[in-house]
Amino acid sequence: MSAREQILAGIARARGSEADRAAVEERIARHRRNLIPARADLPAAERVALFAHMARENAATVAEVASPADVPAAVRDFLAGHNLPATVKLAPDPAITGIDWSVVPTLETATGRAEDADVTSVTPATAGIAETGTLMLTGGPDSPTTLNFLPDNHIVVLRRDQVLGNYEEAWDVVRARHGEGVLPRTVNMITGPSRTGDIEQTIQLGAHGPRRLHIILVGGGEGA
Amino acid sequence: MQPQSHRFVEAAREAVNDQRLRKALGNMKAGFQNKRAATIAKLPEFQDLREEGRQLKNHVLANLDAYLERFEAKVEESGGTVHWARTAGEAREAVAAICRAAGARTVTKGKSMVAEEIGLNEHLIAQGFTPIETDLGEYIIQLRGELPSHIIAPAIHLNREDVEETFRAHHTELDPKRQLIEVPDFTNEARLILRRRFQEADVGITGANFLIAETGSTIIVTNEGNGDLTQNLPRVHVVVTSIDKVIPTLEDVSTLLRLLARSATGQEFSAYTTLSTGPKRPGDLDGPDEFHVVLVDNGRSALLGTEAQDVLRCIRCGACMNHCPVYGAIGGHAYGWVVPGPIGAALDPGIIGVEEAHHLPNASTFCGKCAEVCPMKIPLPKIMHYWRVKEFESKVQPARYRRGIGFWAFFARRPRLYRLGARLGMGLLGRLGRRRGRFRSLPLAGAWTRYRDFPAPEGGTFMARYRQSGKSGR
Predict the structure, then answer these.
(1) A144 has a chain B CB within 8 A of its CB
(2) Which of chain A's residues have a Cβ under 8 Å away from the Cβ of B281?
(3) What is the interface pTM, i.e. ipTM, of the complex?
(4) pTM of the prediction?
């Protein structure tokens, strides 16, 4: 008997009966929500405020701008504020490449996956999750995953109307885009910059991934 | 690495006398306990989530084969491969075979306790590969040739001075006069050294916190981002994980994620929770060409249907060890195996056998704190009790112990005789010790009186007093 058959048979033997396959299929097909904390059950504006608050609690920085056209200036300000070179690697996503970056002529942009030399990346996000200030980023040809981890600085452009309350709402957004039971190759849920507590339990930012996570929230007024 | 759990008694004695270790473990209260308490206080639903987690995992364990098959089918649908391993030996050979087929030399690794359990690094080195741990704590202990002493903070037994010695001894290419004092000095040095390694690697190996049957995804939860660099940069990604990690849906895993970070580090959510589904897809600019999942049993399926089954609900947060007075006094190495603390005492006898691990379920006062903080409501003391029974049945204890327990059991089964004996003993000790009120030494109680006096009984037995107060209370 193969290892696979033997392990599966051992499990069935321990139970002494057949698995309830109908219940298994039903649970997966319905993917019912379990208890969801009430914390993020808020009107749009307050939900966005909670998201920004939780993200800052986790050592991210958040800037708010009125429209996508304001993003390049916000990027320039962030870079200048940290004495960083005015060079960014952009995700090849229309939400990012569709912005007119020439409005800030001093900013040098390139597009593609991250390489070791890249100091700062700019990527879109699929959702913001207010409950814990978490960003959800989905990988694909338009959004290479290396942009989220290799550069020292990661800038994420997020529309206010993308800020949801909880993880479950974000899964529904992903399902609507990719289909039932299908995920993009990577889904990154990111809450603040990289950190470690491995030296004497002292939290230190920038262990292996980005030392800084900067979120640019786009859109005025209410949620949208 | 061979288990050293049979040495537990000696190792624990060495550990309590190790001043450096005591200093390092002293950080745990502020580092883990207080942060957890503060974060949980902010989530009123936490206790209800624990109950949901318990029920969810019980449902999975009752249908584990069906969920594993469902997971396997989805991994294959997304272009990945699943390898099944009954034993540690089969598992490490499965990984080595993947590395050979990839023509690998350097292999980077994210933190994986299952990889530690199967002795993966030793095997890969023997097969001519160079495995490199990339989690900071794991990297430090790999340089030192040690086992992790904690499942989420592998180097918690070390102080800065220890790490400084290790880095200076191994990073000889760096300036010997460089400063290694503040915490960033260490993290920056490791980041610099390991960045090169990430780029060289041919294969990246990670563990998994969860597997999702709905989508065929594996999940890692990290703070450093090393796991993501490990799995995104090399040509091949291998996930080494165990059969108890499978979870039905994204909604179900969301529930467990709400419990995990809060229980582990006291964070609301870890910095990086990453779901990986299959290899690189058409048009992708990065990602591995191959995606393998090695599903390890290694004794777990044999726990199903036993009183120890609940231990398979564990999500490896480490809260039980963070709150355990025994772990807090001796650290993780004394346990002599990869998973220490209360969860180790409940799990390890099932993985490495009762004969090797029989001391571990005895390393508990049954204070119950572990079960109280366990996000999955695992009745850890009850499972330790189960292993104590197995220990007695298997006759691994020295004859002296067994005779002692037999002697006690003889009286415990005869309550009248027991009470009579207790009354006579109390009376005798009370008379002998009346003058001083305590004993410096007592026959058969040397282990107690070596470190402290034994107080002389002042009145009757507990039962006598209980009966008395019962009468007066009514």
Answers:
(1) yes
(2) 140, 185
(3) 0.97
(4) 0.94
